[in-house]
Write a structure and sequence with these properties.
The complex is a heterodimer of chains A (400) and B (98).
Chain A: H1 3-14, H2 19-22, H3 32-37, E1 39-41, E2 49-54, E3 57-60, E4 78-79, E5 96-99, E6 107-109, H4 111-116, E7 119-127, E8 150-158, H5 160-167, E9 175-180, E10 193-197, H6 198-202, E11 207-209, E12 211-212, E13 215-216, E14 226-228, E15 241-247, H7 254-257, E16 261-263, E17 281-283, E18 290-295, E19 301-302, E20 308-314, E21 320-326, E22 334-335, E23 337-338, E24 348-353, E25 360-370, E26 394-399
Parallel strand pairs in A: 5-15, 19-26
Antiparallel strand pairs in A: 1-2, 2-3, 3-4, 5-6, 7-8, 8-12, 9-10, 9-15, 11-14, 12-13, 16-17, 18-20, 20-24, 21-22, 21-25, 23-24, 25-26
Chain B: H1 3-15, H2 17-20, H3 33-39, H4 48-51, H5 58-70, H6 78-92
Helix pairs in contact in B: 5-6
Classes of the chains: A mainly beta (400), B mainly alpha (98).
């Protein structure tokens, strides 16, 4: 099916219903305009997702999907900046070019050649840098994501370093630049180009994924191959990879130098990205420690005899040490039981039995602490682009 | 706005038509609406406007329109930009403090 049919279909299927009617659980902290504009849309191959924009498609995963550590492919969020997105037909002749000024040679790899390289697998969270932007106060411009601009999947494919090895990495290499098949709708818009520090590109866990949760990558999630950079935000996880450039120079691209930047030193980083730092800002890199209550959902009615609170916690790969839940609006905190971790980079599921509660409303909160001893801040470390919102989630339930 | 520019904008919009038509984002009825629809729908759907409401100050809406022109290459001249900013501020800007 061609992409255009998909999008037209999406609009026709559901139309423009008021979101409040179909998604009473949508966070009241989102801007009013977002709450009115967002609505559930089912595109072929996907379950209904929260559509923030149809062109380019920006589709958010409903919170109910986070009851499990793995986010199913058909509920996985979709994020594009540029409306010129490829359709399956245009990807028929797809191959991946690997070369550059710090490469020994230029090679073009087919999907088959990627599959012939040694394969590996990693379960990791793919989270948009701006996930939760719509919930920050005061609001900042951008795609107004609630909490579902993320997902966790098991990614499978060759290591990026083995792909780079086909072209040969020269000693002067400092960065690996990546490009995908999505293009600007107008010529004046900068193409979406990103880069990785060489060390990150060569790391064992950085892979070129060709499958996701055992199935092919959905078209809207980067078919036929996307970069997977566990621990770093999704801006580096280039979809529909078409070209990889091994370079002796830092990439000069709008999407590196101007966008996706945070005030220097504001957020903790494991290794950082020194070749892209400037005096006042750094490129966004490591995911910050975060957590989510997936059930009950905001506004839900629960039993006074007690109910189970379930959710997830994640960080940049140090792993989750503990999760605390408050049932009384932050006055007291209870320690949740952690399930086993699928990987240090994955969502870690947890559970808490509430015990009996008085009738009325109860405010639930959750707060995770990582193995690197980071915990979620009470106040969002404000930054102009609205990144890294990891303020503890709050929601109210009706105890009946 | 220069008619040539508007013309090319409309042409761009019609090239992108299959998706542009997919969802009609109803913008508020007010002077300047037509111009906003023509100038702001070629790269992304108009939903980017209501999605970002109502919380932006006049300065920030102005900065957004400037960003679309200078960073993303939106072909909008100064006169058109002023009309567009006026519309965005009055229809999609942060409510004025009493």
């Amino acid at each position: 099916m061609r992409r255009r049919d998909i999008i037209v279909g999406a609009g026709a299927l559901i139309g423009h219903e008021a979101s409040a009617a179909t998604m009473p659980w949508l966070s009241p902290d989102l801007p009013d305009g977002t709450r009115a504009e967002a609505h559930l849309v089912q595109t072929p191959g996907k379950q209904p997702l929260i559509q923030l924009s149809d062109r380019p498609p920006n589709l958010e995963t409903p919170i109910q999907a986070f009851r499990t550590a793995i986010t199913p492919n058909d509920q996985f969020f979709v994020r594009y900046h540029l409306a010129g997105i490829p359709d399956e037909k245009s990807l028929d002749t797809w191959n991946l070019e690997v070369g550059g000024d710090a490469a020994e040679r230029t090679v073009k790899l087919t999907a088959q050649q990627l599959n012939d390289l040694p394969q590996t697998e990693i379960t990791a969270v793919c989270q948009c840098s701006g996930n939760g932007r719509g919930l920050v106060q005061p609001h900042v411009p951008g795609v107004q994501w609630g909490r579902g601009g993320m997902g966790c999947a098991t990614w499978h494919g060759p290591r990026l370093r083995d792909v780079l090895g086909r072209a040969g990495v020269k000693s002067e290499a400092v960065e690996v630049w990546v490009e995908g098949a999505d293009l600007p709708a107008m010529p004046g818009t900068p193409e979406f180009r990103k880069s990785l520090p060489l060390s990150r590109a060569l790391a064992a866990e950085t892979i070129v994924a060709t499958t996701m949760n055992g199935g092919p990558l959905p078209l809207l999630n980067g078919f036929p191959a996307r970069l997977v950079v566990p621990g770093w935000t999704a801006t580096y996880w280039m979809k529909h990879l078409t070209r990889i450039t091994i370079s002796a120079k830092p990439l000069d691209s709008f999407w590196m130098k101007k966008a996706y930047r945070v005030p220097a030193g504001l957020f903790p980083v494991a290794q950082g990205f020194a070749t892209q730092d400037d005096a006042s800002t750094w490129p966004i890199t490591d995911i910050v420690v975060n957590s989510l209550i997936a059930t009950p959902i905001h506004g839900e009615q629960v039993e006074r005899s007690g109910f189970t609170v379930r959710g997830i916690a994640w960080d940049n790969g140090s792993g989750i040490q503990r999760v605390d839940v408050s049932l009384d609006g932050g006055k007291s905190w209870l320690s949740a039981l952690l399930d086993r971790e699928l990987s240090l980079y994955s969502f870690r599921t947890w559970r808490l039995e509430s015990g009996p509660l008085p009738r009325g409303t109860a405010e639930l909160r959750v707060r995770a602490t990582s193995n690197s001893k980071r915990t979620q801040p009470e106040v969002w470390p404000a930054n102009p682009a609205g990144y890294h919102n990891n303020v503890p989630q709050r929601l109210t339930v009706k105890v009946a | 706005m220069d008619h040539r520019i508007l013309g090319s904008l409309l042409l761009m919009a019609s090239l992108a038509a299959p998706t542009a038509m997919a969802q009609r984002v109803p913008l508020a009825q007010a002077p300047g609406k037509d111009m906003v629809e023509a100038a702001c729908s070629s790269c992304h759907s108009l939903s980017y406007i209501p999605m970002n409401s109502r919380f932006l100050s006049p300065e920030v809406w102005k900065a957004e329109v400037t960003k679309m022109r200078t960073v993303f290459g939106a072909p909008i001249d100064d006169d058109a930009a002023n009309t567009i900013i006026g519309y965005l501020v009055s229809q999609y800007g942060a409510p004025k403090k009493p």
